[in-house]
Amino acid sequence: xxxxxxLAAYAGVTVRAVRHYHAKGLxxxxxxxxxxxxxxxxxxxxxxxxxxxxxxxxxxxARVRELLDAGEDEFAAAVAGIDRRLRAEIRERQRHRERIAxxxxxxxxxxxxxxxxxxxxLRALGVDERIVQVERxxxxxxxxxxxxxxxxxxxxxxxxxxxxxxADFYRTLGQALDGDDSRLPGLADHLAAYLxxxxxxxxxxxxxxxxxAPPFAELMxxxxxxxxxxxxxxxxxxxxxxxxxxxxxxxxxxxxR
Length: 257
Known about the structure:
Layout: H1 4-11, H2 15-23, H3 42-56, H4 61-69, H5 72-87, H6 94-100, H7 113-124, H8 129-145, H9 150-161, H10 164-176, H11 184-202, H12 204-208, H13 214-227, H14 230-240, E1 243-244, E2 250-251
Antiparallel strand pairs: 1-2
Helix pairs in contact: 1-3, 3-4, 5-6, 7-8, 7-9, 8-13, 10-11, 11-14
């Protein structure tokens, strides 16, 4: 869980901006903990980054919530209207117009092309769209937090997806979302074997090198576990087989089975 200052830092805004978004009703204000502080989860970080991106693109705050809640057709129509308005403004607004023109591209809202390509590849592999959205929401904080590492991480992810096991990993998680978790133990066996083999061939640093501070890695894990509960069960099974972690994988002593 994050303090308001940590949330603002991860999203690239000021604490004052977060409070302003609270006042405008754009970002829900969490309850205070026993110490009287407000604590924010991973979902708040993703939502704040989306709000910041739309605001920086020149969208009036009065329309941000409307766009975030809009359907695809309504969203595209709204963006087109904003684009027409920006065309009439002075040259200083040109960069806003270029940014707003990208909004109709869906995943391109806050993600670079190499990440969008990965999401499209998952869809082509037959992965459940809900799992694709979990993957997408995981990339949003990563891109905001460490944009310079994204090309490296994306290239590594492309290598992993060349292995049929990883495609099966994503498809199985999708089936488990509907309550079918019978394949998770077998998948944990195969995934542990894959990680062990990769560590032996490429080194353990290759398997787990995300270079993220533990609090941020835990935030990323919480985002995945909250939106895809089978992921937490899979990690429990994986620990029994000598590996743990979701955002940052690490070898551990296997739990007894």
